[in-house]
Amino acid sequence: MKQLSDRIVAKLQAEMQVPDLAGTRYSVVRHLARGGMGSVWLADDMVLNRRVALKVLDLVAPADDLGALLLREARILAGLEHPGIVPVHDAGTLADGRTFYCMKYVEGQTLAQHIAGKNLSEKLRLLERIAEPLDFAHARGFIHRDLKPENVMIGAFGEVLVMDWGLAKVAATGRKPTEDGISMVVPDPQNSSRVTGQGSVLGTPGYMSPEQEHGGNEVDHRTDIFSLGALLAFMLTGSSEEAPAATRAVPRPLRAICEKAMATDPNARYQSAREMAADTVRYLSGEPVLAYPEGWFERVGRIYARHRTAIVLVGAYLLMRVFFILFARR
Amino acid sequence: MNKVVLGLILGAILGAVDGMSAWFTPEVRTQIVGIVIGSTFKGIIAGILIGVFARKVRSLALGIVFGLGVGLLLAFIVAQMQHGFYFQIMLPGGMVGLIVGYATQRYGRGPQPQRP
Asked: What are the DSSP calls for B31-72, one per residue?
C-alpha cells in the first residue's frame, strides 16, 4: 500500500513539474533533461511548426532569484551568436509564474557518447571545434565556467555546440562587461559543487580550475582553458581525473598540451582557447607542439612520420640508382 | 611554394641526379655534360607538366599515375634516341615522374579560390 502511495506521489510530483504552457505558442512533447536550476523540455512550436527545447525553472525553486538567473542565461546566449552556441528564440514567464526560455532543439549526442570509437585525430578535431565558440565567448568577455563532456553536444549534422551557459560569468577584463557575476546559490542534483557568488565554489569537480575551486572572484577566461585541458584529458584517457602524464598510451606532446592547459598557475596555461586548439592542430599536422620541447630523436621520428611516403620514395630511387651503378651499367 | 614551381625544381634536381649517375658508366663519361643538361631539361619538362596537372586535379592517386606516365613517356623518347637501354633509362625516369607526381600533390600550394 505504501509502495503504491509512493508511486502516486512521485507521479504527482512529475506531473507538477510539467510546465503550464497555456497561452504560449508551445506544447510539451516530453522531458529531456534536468539541469541546475530547471528542466529542459522538448516542445512543439505550434506557430512555426518545429521542435524546440524549453528550459523552464523548477516550480519548487525560489522563483524570483532563479528567474532572473535563467533570464540572464538566455540573454547571454542571445548575445553569443555563433554556430557553436545554441541559439535562443524566445524568453518569458509562463502562466504558472515560472521563467522559461526557448532554444533550438539539438538532436544529437553528448561528447562522451560521441567520442566512443573515435580515433585520436577525430577527437582532436572535435577539441578544435569546441575551442571555437569558447574563444568567441571569451573575446566578448564571457566565461563559461562549467565546461564538461555533458555540456558539449554533437548534432545530427556533426555540428559541435557548447551548451549550458547557466553559470557563465562576465569577465571583469572582458571587452563588453555589462553585468555583475552571479550572486546566489544554485543547487545541482548531480554535481555537488555548483554554487555561485563571491567567495563560493562554482563548477564541476574534475573540470574546475584551482582558482575556481578556491571560490575566488578573480577567475578569468583561463579557467575555461583549464576545463578545456580537462576535456582533452577526458577524450584521451576517458577521465578528466586521470593525469594524461600517467597514461603511456597518450603521445607525449598531447600529454604536454593537457599539462600546460591544466597548469595550476593561470599564467602558465595557454592564454586563449584558440592558442590551445592551434597546438593540437600542430600535433595533427606533424608539426612541433609549442607545449613540448622535443629531443633530436623525437624530431627525426616526427619528420619521418610526417613525410614517410616521400622519404621512402626518394630512398627507393637512390637504392635503384646504386643498384644500376653496381650491377646494371649502360 | 607553387605546385608548378615545386614540380620544376624537383624535376630539375632529380633529372640532374639522374644524369650525373652516368658518370659511373666509363663508356659515356666523356659525354657527361650533355647527358646532365639533357636529363635536367627532361626533368624540368616533366616537372612542369606534372605541376600543372597537380594544379588542375587534386588527387594523390591520379597525380602519381600521371607523374609515372609522363616520366615513362619522356624516358621512352630518350631511350628511342639512344637506340637501347630502355630498362636503365625508363625505370629511373618513371620513378622520377612518380616522385614528382606524389610531391606536387602532397606538397606545394594550389591555386587560391577567387574572391567574388
From this structure: GHHHHHHHHHHHHHHHHHHHHHHHHH---HHHHHHHHHHHHH
The torsion angles phi and psi of A116, rounded to 5 degrees, stand at: -60, 120
Task: Please enumerate in sequence order all residues whose Cβ is within 8 A of that of A105, keeping only pairs 6 or more positions apart, or say none.
Answer: A42, A51, A52, A53
CB within 8 A of B36, min separation 6: which ones?
Answer: B16, B19, B20, B22
Contacts of A328 in chain B (CB under 8 A): 87-88
User: Is pTM, for the whole model, over 0.90?
Assistant: no
Interface residue B96 vs chain A (CB under 8 A): yes
Are the beta carbons of B21 and A321 closer than 8 angstroms?
A: yes
SS3 A21: coil
Per residue in B81-99, pLDDT (tens digit) is 877 778 888 888 899 999 9
Region of residue A211 (left: phi > 0; alpha: psi -120 to 50; beta: else):
alpha
- The active-site residue, picked from A45, A58, A135, A146, is A146
Question: What CATH number should be reported for the domain whose range is A108-284?
Answer: 1.10.510.10
State ipTM. 0.84
- Classify domain A9-104 at the CATH topology level: Phosphorylase Kinase; domain 1 (3.30.200)
